[in-house]
Amino acid sequence: MANSLDDLRVEDDGLVCGEVGRWAETKYRLISLYDKLFATGMKNKWEQRVYIDLYAGAGHSQIRGTDIRIKGSPILALDLPCPFDKYIFCDESESLLAALQKRTGRIAPESNVVFVHGSCDREIDNICAAIPRASKTNRVLSMCLVDPFDFGIKFESIRRLSECFVDFLVLLAVGMDAGRNYDHYVEGNNPKISEALGNTAWLERWKVFPGGRKRLREFLAAEFALSMKSLGYLDVPTHRMKLVRSDERNLPLYYLALFSRNQTAYQFWDEVLKYSTDQQSFSWG
After folding, report:
1. Stated pTM of the model
2. Which domains does the chain carry?
3. Residues in the chain, pLDDT under 50
């Protein structure tokens, strides 16, 4: 659990890890706090709490252009005061997943962990099958982290997982990817945005949306929230999402957004937003 940025740092353990921008420190700090609030707050309310990471990576990441290595989302989720009852880690890279398996074995050898190799979209049936079957005497609540490198979410995968009791913490790379590739995604024939939003009607709404290109980021985030609302999730306006900017030029990169069917989750999320400024470190009281 990362109380501060220093708590994210790790030594080189000789295993492979991916590269990330420096802004990833902020992202992982926020994710770590929400993990802690969710896992602890739900401990006595559900028989099983499941953590799902669709783009798990190697568990450690190296900050691009430096020798700094930091904990990734799977390791942060394993290293909690009240760990989840089960973990499902998926990644398309065989080498990254193998490194994560070794790190998991070192850090949490007794944890119940399922590793799924392959694209989360192709493996979604296997991911769903790994979630424990719920019953009246075995209530199961899952938290799913959706942290892709670009705006490459397939909404159909989200829809499949939503058939269970699943809360989602989603990175919406609307500044990093969609905004930078406007001509390709919006004015071209690329289906990426339609697949991420789960519909094609967004384009007609965009044509009449005021503000032009500079508001595409806000528009797509709101459209994704609208798609989640169609699955029964509570409405999430963009001001309740965390906008993360780059360190180099202060450019908007992505929104980090929570989606739940229960207001309690948003109480946890409000705590995350409250302590999310770079100048503050988290205090657990």
Report:
1. 0.92
2. 1-147 (3.40.50), 157-274 (no CATH)
3. 278-285
